[in-house]
TrEMBL record:
<dbReference type="InterPro" id="IPR057774">
    <property type="entry name" value="D8C_UMOD/GP2/OIT3-like"/>
</dbReference>
<keyword id="KW-0245">EGF-like domain</keyword>
<comment type="similarity">
    <text>Belongs to the EGF domain peptide family.</text>
</comment>
<dbReference type="InterPro" id="IPR000742">
    <property type="entry name" value="EGF"/>
</dbReference>
<dbReference type="Pfam" id="PF00008">
    <property type="entry name" value="EGF"/>
</dbReference>
<feature type="disulfide bond">
    <location>
        <begin position="101"/>
        <end position="118"/>
    </location>
</feature>
<dbReference type="Pfam" id="PF00024">
    <property type="entry name" value="PAN_1"/>
</dbReference>
<feature type="domain" description="EGF-like">
    <location>
        <begin position="92"/>
        <end position="132"/>
    </location>
</feature>
<dbReference type="Pfam" id="PF23283">
    <property type="entry name" value="D8C_UMOD"/>
</dbReference>
<dbReference type="InterPro" id="IPR003609">
    <property type="entry name" value="Pan_app"/>
</dbReference>
<keyword id="KW-1015">Disulfide bond</keyword>
<protein>
    <submittedName>
        <fullName>Uromodulin-like isoform X2</fullName>
    </submittedName>
</protein>
<keyword id="KW-0732">Signal</keyword>
Length: 250
């Protein structure tokens, strides 16, 4: 995720008391207090709808700074920037600003706020984002048939956020039925709780369940799944704990 400084000491004001019409300027805002500006950045990273933030340079008596999380960015609402010498504004680069979608397609940011997805207009079509740019997972230890309990236990808590495709010895897709525990070289085996999306459905947000303690969905994570026609890709996110792992099958 890339951040860029807005002009120093400028603030994106979203309070409707400044004359914005709620019907035409419907933007989310959340205020919190943080020790320093990097904590403000991390606070935004932890909120899916956050696109930018205002950080108050002067701390309160408790040593904390005001951090305003905003659901828009300087690129989208540049005209709403106003000078305020007590705040610094940070923005996440919005890939959709450069209008990457052709023929009038609609651009939307993905869950990691760096990749984007194009929704084609009627009569047009194209490969979804990620179908031509993804990482291949060929590791046979991820396959549901791998029940080797003596091998080192693996975990996806540190997996890099991005698009992945299963191929080769790993298999071709994630399972859509509850996988027994202690498979895929892990303790809690990960599987999709619903069928894979069709091509027409495009990129779909789905739930991955992790089987543990006699509960097929003891933990869960939401990921994006795309049908690329001949294969599926998955936008994996780090698991909440160890040892949980995304599994595959032939």
């Amino acid at each position: 995720m890339k951040f860029s400084y807005q002009e120093e000491y400028r603030r994106l004001l979203l309070s409707f008391s400044f004359g914005f019409d709620r019907d035409t300027f419907d933007i989310q805002q959340q205020t919190t207090q943080v020790p320093d500006k990097m904590d403000c950045v991390f606070a935004c990273v932890g909120v899916p709808w956050c696109r930018s933030m205002n950080f108050q340079t002067t701390a309160h008596n408790n040593g904390l700074h005001v951090c305003e999380l905003l659901s828009t960015d300087k690129h989208t609402h540049q005209k709403n920037m106003t000078r305020n010498d007590t705040f610094i504004h940070f923005s996440i680069k919005n890939q959709c600003i450069e209008s990457p979608c052709l023929n009038g397609g609609t651009c939307s940011l993905q869950i990691n706020r760096h990749d984007y997805h194009c929704q084609c207009k009627k009569g047009y079509h194209g490969l979804p984002f990620g179908c031509s740019s993804h990482a291949n997972i060929t590791d046979a230890t991820r396959n549901v048939n791998n029940a080797n309990t003596t091998a080192p236990i693996k975990c996806d808590k540190r997996i890099a956020l991005g698009w992945y495709r299963f191929s080769g010895a790993a298999g071709v897709r994630m399972p859509t039925n509850c996988v027994p525990t202690s498979r895929c070289s892990t303790h809690a085996s990960g599987w999709l709780s619903d069928p894979h999306p069709t091509i027409e459905q495009g990129t779909t947000t789905m739930k991955v369940c992790f089987h543990w303690s006699k509960n097929c969905c003891n933990w869960s994570r939401s990921i994006n799944v795309t049908n690329c026609g001949e294969f599926f890709i998955y936008q994996f996110v780090p698991t909440l704990t160890c040892s949980l792992r995304y599994c595959s099958e032939h």
